[in-house]
User: What shape does this take?
Amino acid sequence: MGRLRTNGWRAGFLILLLLLVQLPGSARAQENLPPRLFLPLIAASSRCQANTGENYTAITVEPPPTDRPAAEHADLNLALRSYTPTDGFLGLVDYTGATDPLAPQLYGLFSDERTGQFTRLHRVYDWNWACNCRGGPLAYPPVTLAELATAPGELIRVPNSGYTIGGGYEVLVLYATPERITLKYTRNDNVVHGFTLHLEGVCIDPHLLALYQASNAAGRGNLPALRAGQAVGRAEDDTIGVAIRDSGTFLDPRSRKDWWRGR
Assistant: This one.
């Protein structure tokens, strides 16, 4: 009995000593990991069940192609601008002024065409093209990106508008990553004219993403085209981010007269 206790104490001491020897190396190994590179990928692979069952096609784009790589273009890749939280009314807002009767209707993001439940509001950052760098948050309108409530994994679709880009298609995919997408309601590879829709926190269908990546690598003469109501992916979590632009200008996604008519 006494010998077992002595041997057990010695074994425990040796184990503790080994742990103490190994801990600094383990800590250094953890410190050397690039978490921004690996951890998001682990999270995305476990949370994003993006397959929608849709088929996707690329169509010809009106020249010229975008003037720089899409991932480095602050009009296409919203991550370059980013956005900052702001306060405001979490519901539809009534603006005065003219409206486009053919504008995209954002209830079409959802299969049940519900009025969006606004959960958080943000201001997108301006972009200084002279230095190709981020400016301050856009001052007007007071909200330029909104988070809408979703069920994790629910399908996210292309909102319908009164426009078409030919062949029954509604939008071009100007930019896509596993968790964001930029859609354009014209056949141009820019945001200069017409409506542009940025969606954040959406797990993009891997087939659509692969088609975009192949089209982008081939020079962007063709880009994926989507029909109204076609699914682009699934909500990653309990909200998605929505920003909408008209001829490059960011507008308020809460505007009733523009994006939520009749609601």
In short: The chain has five helices and 14 strands. The two ends are 80 Å apart (CA to CA). The first strand starts at residue 57 and ends at 60. Residues 39-259 form one domain.
